[in-house]
Amino acid sequence: MTASYHYNRVLLKISGEFLMGKQSYGIDTEMVARVASEIKAVSEQGIEICLVIGGGNIFRGVSGAAAGMERATGDYMGMLATVMNALAMQNALEQVDTEVRVMSALPISAVCEPYIRRRAMRHMEKGRIVIFAAGTGNPFFSTDTAAALRASEMGCDALLKGTKVEGVYDKDPEKDASAKRFDTLSYMDVLAKDLKVMDASAISLSRENKIPILVFSIAQEGGFDDVLQHKGAFTLVSEKSVS
Known about the structure:
alpha/beta; Carbamate kinase; 9-stranded mixed β-sheet; two-stranded antiparallel sheet; globular
């Protein structure tokens, strides 16, 4: 790993909605391929990478519950959606000659490995990308919480959240041009101001395990590589805010 990179092992969290690209539903294979190429480029620098991908482009348990479905059932359907996204990303990474393993919190042995912490650690030590699918394996927990949990279990140096915008803002920058981006925030700032970075349990878990959260735009080409070098625009969430 070159000296310009600030982290040795990271977890990248990507929303399922991002994988839709310009579509209104499903998976945009060109978008998945672009993200895969960026992950490969970073991996080649010697950085160990694991991923959690949401399932909102296919199904969201919360929206299912709002439509009258039992919440637990909806959440399990959402977990299966994350498995589909994980397999799509696995395929894209393999097409660019990158070793990758999908590990699911729900046992689906025909298509992916069961999640076993020590096995996941070993895969990463061998330079393989590990994609954690099916959230935590339990309903009522978001993929944000799953990302914070897996980052803690894997001993990651940072949790990176790839979004459509360049960090955390005080308002929605897509709706309000006066929105201000924060350079840094503390975990408590995020909770007190109810900023929609990640859900409260994910923030609390990251704080407890001292894992910084970097929110950046994965829509920006090269954004993943840049944020690992603390280049470009992003928001750093850690114990202390210096804004």
